[in-house]
Specification:
The complex is a heterodimer. Chain A has 3 helices and no strands. By secondary structure, chain A is mostly helical. By secondary structure, chain B is an all-alpha fold. In chain B, helix 1 runs antiparallel to helix 2 and helix 2 packs antiparallel against helix 3. Chain A: InterPro entries: NADH_UbQ_OxRdtase_chain4L/K (IPR001133), NUOK/Mnh_C1-like (IPR039428).
Chain lengths: 100, 187
């Protein structure tokens, strides 16, 4: 197993998530895209830690990324609930109030 | 060699399931596909001897997918396992941008002269993580903790229908007004 192999897999996973985050209309589906991207970041950080800097600090960075995933998930579900309550929909196109 | 084959198989499963999330006909199937992708990534982490982080990733993601399935059933107002759906916007540009990003990242990965691999971590990695969190990196966890607590409060404030504020004035025992739009200050 090499660093390049793991990073290519992480890049592919990240780009699949990017496609989902950019193209989907439903808030929950956008969250799925974001989580795929964060999962790719976890994989890439693991590769850098294992192959280049095998100190425990890399594991702490992984925990921070996982915490970011939980924050994203909790706030995303809360926003989806709020959108559904106030507008009866959970589509991103219905929440363009700040688009200018 | 066997490790490389297993890793490649898991990577293919993770990426193919990730693609399936946005290709399948129903949101329930999309949720299952994402769960499979996350479990595959968790298994990859286990291959790097990250027992603790790999297991919490798998557990957290499986629970999250269960919650996501409930949300879809609650909000979509249809049988989420059967109803075909295609709710995308700007599909072509999203495809071009993500493919371009992959080419850019892959070129960077292959062209950058990476330093020689260091010696693989040895010993009890979970114990070393615990000692680091409780030692030199305690400030990181001290920062993450209030952020998670603030997230709990913010999520509750956003998701709560604000029922306790639907009343006349600031007396908690006064009756609620019959507003057409709840959540205001009355009147």
């Amino acid at each position: 197993m090499s660093l390049q192999l793991v990073l290519i897999a992480a890049a592919a996973l990240f780009c699949v998530g990017l496609y989902g985050a950019l193209s989907q209309q439903v808030v929950v589906m956008v969250m799925m895209g974001l989580e795929l991207m964060l999962n790719a970041v976890i994989l890439a950080v693991t590769a850098f830690w294992w192959f280049l800097a095998p100190a425990p600090d890399g594991q702490v960075l992984l925990l921070v990324v996982i915490a970011a995933m939980t924050v994203e998930m909790a706030m995303g579900f809360a926003v989806a609930t709020l959108l559904h309550r106030s507008r009866g929909s959970d589509m991103t196109d219905m929440a363009t109030d700040l688009s200018g | 060699m066997l490790a490389v084959i297993v890793f490649c198989a898991l990577a293919v499963v993770a990426i193919a399931s990730g693609v399936a999330v946005f290709r399948v006909d129903s949101m329930a199937r999309a949720t299952y596909a994402l769960a499979i992708s996350f479990v595959a990534v968790g298994a990859m982490l286990l291959m790097f001897d990250l027992d603790y982080i790999g297991v919490i990733t798998i557990l957290m993601m499986v629970m999250e997918m269960a919650i996501m399935a409930i949300y879809m059933i609650m909000f979509m107002g249809m049988n989420p396992a059967l109803m075909p759906m295609s709710m995308v916007h700007n599909n072509r540009w999203a495809l071009i941008l993500s493919a371009g990003t992959f080419v850019l990242l892959a070129a960077g990965v292959l062209l950058v002269p990476w330093p020689a691999p260091a010696e693989s971590p040895t010993g009890d990695l979970t114990a070393s993580l615990g000692e680091t969190i409780m030692g030199s990196k305690m400030l990181v966890m001290l920062t993450v903790s209030p952020i998670l607590f603030a997230t709990i409060i913010a999520a509750l404030v956003l998701a709560n229908p604000r029922g306790r504020y639907d009343r006349w004035g600031d007396d908690l025992k006064r009756r609620s007004p019959h507003d057409l739009r709840r959540g205001g200050l009355g009147g």
